[in-house]
Amino acid sequence: MTQVRFFDADGRLDRVADAQPGERLLDVAQHHDQPLEGTCEGQMACSTCHVIVQAVTGMPLPPPSEEEDDLLDFAYGAVRESRLACQILLNDDIQAIDIRMPGGSVDASR
C-alpha cells in the first residue's frame, strides 16, 4: 500500500490517502476530491491531470516518457518535478508519495 499525501498549491497538507498497488495516481486523486480534471480519462491526450511530485519514499518513479514530457510543456505552472497523474502507477515499492497541486488546478466537472 502507498500513502499519498496531497498538498494544495500553497503547500498546505490537504488530504492523506492510502492507495492499492496498481492504482493510477489520477484515480486516487479524483476519489479523494483533488482538483484534477483528467479530461482525456488517462489517455495522455491532455495535461489536465498535471501534478508536482515533491517527494517519493521507496523506489523512485520512472522518468516521464517523451510523450508525457511533451504534454507537460502545455501544463499550467509546469516545473522540473511535474508529472501527469494518469501516468503514475502506484505499487508496493513506493511507500509514500507527496503530491502538490499546481496553482490554477481546477476540475470543471465538479
From TrEMBL:
<dbReference type="InterPro" id="IPR012675">
    <property type="entry name" value="Beta-grasp_dom_sf"/>
</dbReference>
<dbReference type="GO" id="GO:0051537">
    <property type="term" value="F:2 iron, 2 sulfur cluster binding"/>
</dbReference>
<keyword id="KW-0411">Iron-sulfur</keyword>
<dbReference type="Pfam" id="PF00111">
    <property type="entry name" value="Fer2"/>
</dbReference>
<feature type="domain" description="2Fe-2S ferredoxin-type">
    <location>
        <begin position="2"/>
        <end position="105"/>
    </location>
</feature>
<dbReference type="InterPro" id="IPR001041">
    <property type="entry name" value="2Fe-2S_ferredoxin-type"/>
</dbReference>
<dbReference type="InterPro" id="IPR018298">
    <property type="entry name" value="Adrenodoxin_Fe-S_BS"/>
</dbReference>
<dbReference type="GO" id="GO:0009055">
    <property type="term" value="F:electron transfer activity"/>
</dbReference>
<dbReference type="InterPro" id="IPR001055">
    <property type="entry name" value="Adrenodoxin-like"/>
</dbReference>
<keyword id="KW-0479">Metal-binding</keyword>
<dbReference type="GO" id="GO:0140647">
    <property type="term" value="P:P450-containing electron transport chain"/>
</dbReference>
<keyword id="KW-0408">Iron</keyword>
<dbReference type="GO" id="GO:0046872">
    <property type="term" value="F:metal ion binding"/>
</dbReference>
<keyword id="KW-0001">2Fe-2S</keyword>
<protein>
    <submittedName>
        <fullName>Ferredoxin, 2Fe-2S</fullName>
    </submittedName>
</protein>
<comment type="similarity">
    <text>Belongs to the adrenodoxin/putidaredoxin family.</text>
</comment>
<dbReference type="InterPro" id="IPR036010">
    <property type="entry name" value="2Fe-2S_ferredoxin-like_sf"/>
</dbReference>
